[in-house]
Amino acid sequence: MTTSQPMQGNSTSTVLGRRLGGELTKLRTAAGLTQTHAAKVLTGSTTKVAKMEGGWVPMRDPDIRALCELYGLSDPAAVGGLLELARIDRERRKAKGWWNEAAFTGTMKEYVPLESAATAIKAWQVSFIPGLLQTVGYARSLRRVTVPEEHPDRTEEFAASRAARQRRLSEDSPLSLWAIIPEAALRIPGAEPEVASEQLSSLLDWGERPNVTIQVLPFSAGLAASLTGSFNVLSFAEPGAMDVVYMELPLSEMWVEGGDGAAQHAKLFDETARIALPEAESRTFIRALIKKL
User: Fold this and answer.
1) CB burial class (10 A; 0-12, 13-18, 19+) of residue 275?
2) From CA 151, how far away is CA 78, in angstroms rounded?
3) Which alpha helices (DSSP H) does 54-107 contain, by range?
């Protein structure tokens, strides 16, 4: 688990690199082997192995295969999952996209490229409309409230970045998004009626797409364990195989990279989905809110 994007000289420890390194470390430990054993099979140094396990360097397929053989991992699907994660990590490290020029800070500098690479995201946002579904007007209003001292140009840049991120939902191979939104977030307290109406109508439009699922968690559902905090579960391969979780805390952000931690958040999301309104009823609920504006 980490709260930032670690730096070591000119090297960066990436989320996917750490996720992959963690899996290899777990396999090595289970096999009762040391980094010295791993270094020997790679004809390298223990420093190289340490950097691989810490996510500091991109991993080569031959190295991963050699380590899997050493650790006794022969399942083709499991090995393939590690190789796929390594491929995505290598692509993310060298990728150039619109986000390179955007004024992202902290973990968002790593989150947005990961969002671009993900195949599926489960989004649970306690207080606001999920970022991928925000209209420009809503994003602009939200930024003015959360960062009131910010220069207007930065606010506009933030709003524009929201729109740029949404392109992943309408590409030829679109991102699969499953969002659960609590009633409190949908009521958008303090927003201008036109901003709220546009945002709610936009949710209805996005929900028409086969790759977007939107559910509402109404007040009538009662208390839910997930109400303690917002999080996104990002998937990059088969569901659950290589998930990472991005958590939003009141004053910081955090990554959950361990397999068990990611699985627990995915389970929490699924439990929330079970008590939320089904898609059709959620659409009816949102339409009713629009009529009251």
Assistant:
1) middle
2) 48
3) 61-71, 76-94
- Residues 17 and 56: beta-carbon distance below 8 Å: yes
Rg for the chain (alpha carbons), in Å?
Answer: 21
Q: Which amino acid is at 157?
A: E
At 240-271, the pLDDT tens digits run 556 888 887 665 667 776 567 888 999 999 99
Cα–Cα dist 255/16, whole Å: 11
Which residue stretches of the chain are H helix? Answer: 15-30, 35-41, 46-53, 61-71, 76-94, 108-117, 136-146, 152-165, 183-186, 193-207, 259-275, 279-291
CATH of region 104-291? 3.30.870
Q: Which of 5, 30, 28, 27 is nearest to 16 (CA)?
A: 5
Instruction: Give the model confidence (pLDDT) of 166-180 as tens digits.
Output: 999 998 889 999 999
Least confident of 14-23, 62-71, 92-101, 226-235: 92-101
Q: Break the chain into its structural domains and give their ranges.
A: 7-94, 104-291
Which tokens in the block code for residue 65? 């295969």
User: In which residue are the tokens 């930024």 written?
Assistant: 143
Nearest to 221 by CA among 248, 181, 266: 181
Q: Do domains 7-94 and 104-291 have the same CATH topology?
A: no
> Dmax over Cα atoms in the chain, in whole Å?
69
- The CATH class, in words, for 7-94 is mainly alpha
CA–CA distances in Å: residue 206 to residues 60, 64, 132, 212, 270? 39, 40, 10, 6, 21
